[in-house]
Specification:
Nucleotidyltransferase, domain 5; single chain; alpha/beta; 213 residues
């Protein structure tokens, strides 16, 4: 893989529900010629079509790290993301790795957190998933893989909504999971302020019901 370029991006950093998925696509160069774009600008059908193309392209190799909610709770989302990215950087074997910049970290801090192998160049830019097709491809893989995990959980246990704190359906499901210690309880991020707020609401409601007899 010497001389190759890898793109790394994540999906699911912000939701209160489900894992974060970090993906790495390694290629001969940053340009793939397959029409990959930032996954947020693509329809689900377009993402599925492109992820099949990415996975079947003999020039490309794909790797993913899944960061589960309890890992995010234990480490914090930033440290968990750094750990996942560092693992992918070490495994990919590329000479140059382009990241969609995680947070407002300077280059020195990023290198200290990631500890890349000697001779590996790290390029971290905001909106790299818009500027580099190899990062767009990683964005598509991460988003598709996370969606697949969430869809399977919902197929088994019922709908959760978008998974974001602003979605009333997600908050309603979170309240039910806390109240009943339901099957998806562990898939919610307990360190999120959203979780703690809903937990307080459930506790107050339960106490009120007890006092009313």
């Amino acid at each position: 893989m010497i001389g190759k370029t890898a793109g790394v991006d994540e999906a699911g950093r912000g939701p209160v529900f489900g894992p974060m998925v970090v993906a790495c696509v390694t290629a001969p160069s940053e340009r793939l010629g397959i029409g990959a774009r930032d996954s947020k600008k693509l329809t689900p059908a377009a993402r599925r079509r492109l992820v099949r193309r990415i996975m079947s392209d003999p020039r490309l190799s794909v790797d993913v790290e899944i960061v589960w909610p309890w890992e995010i709770d234990r480490e914090g989302v930033a440290e968990a993301e750094f750990r996942a990215v560092a693992s992918l950087v070490r495994r990919c074997g590329a000479r140059r790795v382009i990241l969609d910049k995680p947070g407002n970290y300077d280059d020195e801090t990023l290198l200290r957190k990631l500890r890349p192998p000697e001779g590996v160049e790290i390029i971290a830019e905001e909106r790299a998933d818009d500027r580099y097709e190899v990062v767009s491809a990683a964005s598509i893989v991460a988003k598709t893989y996370r969606d697949w995990i969430v869809e399977n959980l919902e197929r088994l246990h019922g709908p959760v909504g978008s998974g974001y704190p602003t979605d009333p359906k997600t908050i309603e499901r979170l309240e039910r999971e806390i109240s009943e210690d339901g099957p998806l309880h562990d898939m919610f991020r307990r360190s999120w302020s959203t979780y703690r707020r809903v937990e307080r609401k459930v506790s107050t409601k339960t106490l009120d019901e007890f006092l009313r007899g």
